[in-house]
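Tokens in:
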């Protein structure tokens, strides 16, 4: 409420105008923040529409601790991680830092589920299409900044439909040596002020690849992750331009790869409550 005690009419008018201007700025600021949130949400919705109908690689086996001698450039991770990595799981990545090569924990999927705003339909960012990487908000910033990484990997999994139903297959190098997949990383600020990392795998068209064209649903575009050869690790992480980085986004030679059916083990039946011998519709 405006205090007019001891004020002249001109003072009163001046205070009223000041209050009006302050109120306008507060309303404008609130509307601007609301508009920014809507803009961010709209951009994410655009990413949802542009996302692949069927993501390429959604799970893989990271390189185990005992086999990191194959990646001599990089330190072995000093943190634990699962034997198989799925969306939002933490796994090691290699990247170039200010002090040299880094081995960091990062979560699989460029935009972790907890970072998707309320009201935006959840979507997957485990894979980034090389052809549209500069168009999608989820990846374009990391791509233009050349935030390149390597994902140490022993094998990855894809569905094969040649039997008429999806069967999980395991794909690795014929030499059985650990390898690394090309990816992008980004940083997130946590509530405590510390930074966390996330990553995505880069994919390319594989319609003509003798091996990778055998995976995913009939009629769907065939895709493949990009496997980087050990002799190219330094050059990939040291790219100085997007054109240079694109030169690495090639299919791996099929004769140097191996694939076999690798179904998940059947799920163990759920335990019944003690004393409940009556079968249910879910048993």
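Residues out:
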């Amino acid at each position: 409420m405006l205090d007019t005690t001891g004020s002249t009419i001109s003072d009163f008018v001046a205070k009223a105008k000041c209050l009006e201007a302050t109120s306008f700025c507060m309303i404008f600021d609130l509307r601007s923040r609301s508009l920014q949130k809507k803009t961010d949400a709209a951009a994410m919705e655009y990413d949802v529409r542009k996302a692949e109908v069927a993501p390429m690689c959604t799970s893989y086996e990271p390189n185990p601790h005992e086999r990191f001698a194959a990646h001599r450039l990089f330190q072995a991770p000093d943190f634990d991680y699962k034997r198989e990595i799925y969306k939002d799981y933490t796994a090691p990545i290699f990247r170039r830092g200010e002090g040299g090569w880094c081995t960091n924990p990062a979560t699989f999927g460029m935009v972790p589920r907890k970072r998707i705003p309320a009201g935006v339909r959840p979507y997957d960012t485990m894979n980034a299409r090389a052809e549209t990487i500069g168009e999608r908000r989820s990846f374009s910033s990391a791509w233009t900044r050349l935030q390149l990484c390597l994902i140490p990997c022993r094998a990855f999994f894809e569905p094969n439909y040649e039997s008429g139903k999806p069967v999980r297959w395991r794909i690795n190098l014929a030499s059985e040596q650990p390898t690394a997949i090309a990816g992008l990383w980004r940083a997130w600020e946590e509530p405590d002020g510390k930074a966390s990392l996330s990553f995505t795998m880069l994919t390319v068209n594989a319609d003509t690849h003798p091996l990778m064209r055998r995976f995913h649903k009939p009629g769907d575009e065939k895709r493949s992750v990009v496997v980087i050869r050990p002799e190219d690790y330094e050059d990939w992480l040291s790219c100085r331009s997007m054109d240079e980085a694109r030169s690495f986004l090639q299919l791996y030679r099929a004769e140097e790869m191996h694939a076999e059916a690798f179904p998940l083990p059947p799920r163990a039946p759920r335990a019944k409550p003690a004393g409940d011998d009556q079968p249910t519709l879910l048993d």
